[in-house]
Amino acid sequence: MERAVLTGAGGPKRVMIKSAILRLIAENGFHPGDRLPGQNELAARFQTTVVTIHRALAELEAERKIHRINGSGTFVGPRPIPRTRNLCLVLPGEHLDEPSVNPLFWPHVRHLLHAFIFVSGTDWRFATIASETGQPFPSSLHELGREDVVFFHHTKQPRAVLDQMIREGKTPVVSFGLPEPGLRCLTIDHDPENGIPKALHYLYSLGYRRILFAGSSLAWGKPWINGFLRGAEVLGLPHDESFLLLLPTDQTQESGHRAAGLICERGVRCDAVLTDSDMRAVGLIEGFRERGIRVPEDIGVMGYDGLDNATRQPPFLTTLRTPFEQMIRTALDLLDSRRAVRSPVRHLKFVGEILPGRTVRTTGERDG
Q1: How far apart are the C-alpha atoms of 251 and 286, rounded to whole Å?
Q2: Whole-angstrom Cα distance, residue 60 to residue 56?
């Protein structure tokens, strides 16, 4: 190695070493972030000890001329400030988490937002972006980079924005919902075909044997129906048409209220009702109460979602909680492990956990 000649106005040797290191940086055209030679190499170059080199580097670091990373080496310039990664959720419309704007589904959106806030913590900067179908591509999405991640509320709206982000391949994207034709990104969803049997098994373990399912006859409700039929068959529970109450409605509180009236009118002898949503379950409980039917003393009710407004306040619903936190974390871990901008073309399904509440009886209460 070529040895350098120290020049300077005298004084402590480490001062001359500091000047020599700065000349080395300038003469070699090093830029901030470039790696410098190791301490042993510098000591040999400047014909001094490693201790002197170490002290000189410490002073240069204090002056923000260099920075050192344990196990990695010494680098030109001050230690870079870590860039906060952006975690964004694209919603198909503004103010969807406000009851006045979105009275039917704001509890579901709020549940999802709480999960994102919990996962983001201090490692991510979380933000929501409204993008309605037919509107221009949101400018805020253009500002994102490869270290950021964008989640879409579902795969259908705004589909054009989702397709453009996938096509550009600038920022990893993930979408909630079932895979759509031509959609080439990671999709994540809850799994009612396995979640409903899990809920049935829980009710069965508490002694319930005549469980009615209240859900939707719309096309999207088929996985819940399939889950109920399969789970009831495995447990040997009745699952003919009299134990299926399907309404051509969404998962709303009003539809649950109506379901309670129909159950009473038809005289269905059931000891528990399992629903496809917490809001339908809440409406069901209200409808039973108006007719003098007590929950859980006379009949048990179980939901599916795990919404805070149904589980942390009356009626303190028993439900199966959609594992949004696990879904988001798994997607982020998968993207980080790939270290690629383009999202993997995969579909992941998740089954939630039982959240015990006060709307079903415990085994001891039933036996008593």
Answers
A1: 15
A2: 6
| Rounded distance between C-alpha atoms, residue 190 and residue 288, angstroms | 29
Structural domains of the chain, ranges and CATH numbers in brackets: 13-76 (1.10.10.10), 85-191+324-350 (3.40.50.2300), 192-322+354-367 (3.40.50.2300)
Say which amino acid occupies 123: D
Secondary structure class of 156 (helix, strand, coil): coil
Contact (Cβ atoms closer than 8 angstroms) between residue 212 and residue 274 = yes
Q: Which two tokens stand for residue 264?
A: 């009473």
Burial class, 29, CB count within 10 angstroms (exposed 0-12 / middle 13-18 / buried 19+): exposed
Widest CA span in the chain: 103
3-class secondary-structure state, position 213:
strand
Q: Is 356 exposed, middle or buried (0-12, 13-18, 19+ CB in 10 A)?
A: middle
Neighbours of 361 (CB within 10 A): 21
What average pLDDT is seen over the chain?
90
Nearest to 317 by CA among 111, 46, 24: 111
CB-CB neighbours of 347 under 10 Å: 15
- For the segment 251-264, what is each residue's pLDDT rounded down to a tens digit? 899 999 999 999 99
Residue range 280-312, pLDDT digits in tens:
999 999 999 999 999 999 999 999 999 999 999
What separation, in Å, do the N-terminal and C-terminal C-alpha atoms of the chain show? 89
pTM: 0.76
